[in-house]
Design a protein that fits this description.
heterodimer; A: mainly alpha; 2 helices; B: 405 residues; mainly alpha; Growth Hormone, Chain: A; 2 domains
Chain lengths: 42, 405
Amino acid sequence: MKKGLARVAIWLAVGAALLLVFAAYLNPEMAFTLANQLWNCF
Amino acid sequence: MTRTAAAPAPLSMKQVLLCGAMIVTLSMGIRHGFGLWLQPITMDRGWTRETFAFALAVQNLAWGVAGPFAGALADRFGAFKVLIVGSLLYAGGLVLMAVSTSGLAFTGSAGLLLGMAQSGTTYAVVYGVIGRNVAPEKRSWAMGVAAAAGSFGQFLMVPTENWLIGHLGWQQALFVLGCIALAIIPLAAGLKEPKFIVNPLQQSLGAALREAFAYPSFLLLMAGYFVCGFQVVFIGVHMPSYLKDHGLSQDVATGALALIGLFNVIGTYTAGALGQRLPKRYILSTIYALRSVAIVIFLSVPLSPTSVYVFASVMGVLWLSTVPPTNAIVAQVFGVRYLSMLGGFVFLSHQVGSFLGVWLGGKLYDSTGSYDVVWWIAVGLGVFAALVNLPVRESAIVRAAPQPA
């Protein structure tokens, strides 16, 4: 039971971390800088 | 000191996974955002983009060429020592990258030093420790966890480095990254293996190399990994330009990059976990075949933000998912004694493919005026890789029993 809960907690933490980082990419300032960098390479 | 594969696993799996995963998160992550320095460095130093791009090309080649040597040293003297040297090279390379005022010094630091640092702190070295300390029935899964951590590092560090440059300036940001690279040293302590019993009858390094290169399956794995490097780096580097040519906005390229990063973490973990249940050669073959199918569909449907996002998500799942099954097969066939060195050779093939993917992408674009030819080369190579992985033998190689002198 405890093991199962720990596993669920780990998966939730991983999912939250992934979503938080993904959200950082959607930040307008970040998206603008990144897009400029990508475009500047070509 | 020599090591023997027959020695009992001395480190706990949790410790190896935690420390190994954090090390590759840092080592793979730090390097992934280097493109963000292109504009500030070239503007500040008055260099051309070619100067910057050449240093990064040297970095990728140095990473590949130094890989077998770093792996052999890790197999001989232990991953702990190689990781410490790698971490110091990483920190030193980043500081020198920040203070370089000539193109040559920049190539030496950002190119050569950082490439060598990466060879000593990334998958091949860490996988050697995982191979020796995780039971075979969990090895592919454990490699998947480490690969997913490296993918997460790549995903995480782009916004982090962007934030650092924006708030501290490009030079200070590199100094901070240098300090972060030093965190590999305490983490490496968690991968410090006790000395194993000396076994004079054990296979020598040269014999292991000759054995691997005479074994067709090893060459087939190398051929597949070459294709992986070609496809991934061609798409990663040239896709923004392709989208721009077709009139899509900058936001679409950024969104695609984020989706590739997100799904890459999921794909690498899943491939490792599946490797415990299914033949790994079939997993690899499927990954390469699906890449070709995805590219063909992407080229066939009208280009739109939706088609780009779907393609990026699918390619993200298939991005670095070849890493755990490829290395797990090497461990399964040849054992774990020289796993880091053999993993380094397989990775060298990946880096040659990467170099060709970038170079040929640009070359053929210049000569034909579009990326069409390179896209179709990527499709053909995917089919080739899918086919050559099918006959790979995964069973442990049978060696004649060594005779005492």
